[in-house]
Amino acid sequence: MAELANCARCGEIFVKKLHDICQSCQRELEQAYQVVYQFLNNREHREATITEIAEATGIKEEMIIAFIREGRLRPSQYPKLAYPCDRCGADITKGRLCADCAEELKIDLERYEKWKQQRQPQIKEHDRTYYAVNKHKK
User: Fold this and answer.
1) Which of 13, 34, 85, 138 could tie 98 with a disulfide, CB 3.0–4.6 Å?
2) Residue 9 above 70 pLDDT?
3) Residue 1: CB atoms within 10 Å
4) d(Cα 23, Cα 16) in Å, to the nearest integer?
5) What is the pLDDT of residue 3?
6) Does residue 64 sit in helix, strand or coil?
7) First to last CA, the chain
8) Residue 36, SS3?
9) Is the CB of residue 85 less than 8 Å from the CB of residue 94?
10) C-alpha–C-alpha distance, residues 73 and 29, integer Å
11) How far is Cα 31 from Cα 63, in angstroms, rounded to an integer?
């Protein structure tokens, strides 16, 4: 059975199939992608940055970043196609975090796991204590 949903971009109600956006928004995105792709296919523009592409095409930087994250534009083909790390803003070409932020996050998680293991005996001891409530007390 078809599922009705609100478009994530424009809010219109549509019959949801594969995407979270309506067909008109999907067409708009595809047209924007084609504009960016045609711009980058020009030999002179292969080394353009996201900012330069946005200025030349009129397509928002966020949309260009989304094309990269979806794998539609590949930084391996366009050397200066980089977007900011979600945490520190450093330029990256894949994922959401730069190598430094990913390493820092990994260290923090290891530190948390070690802290959790040290605290585990205290938690187990506390879990063995039971409390009873007498509801029939007058």
Assistant:
1) 85
2) yes
3) 2
4) 9
5) 85
6) helix
7) 59
8) helix
9) no
10) 14
11) 12
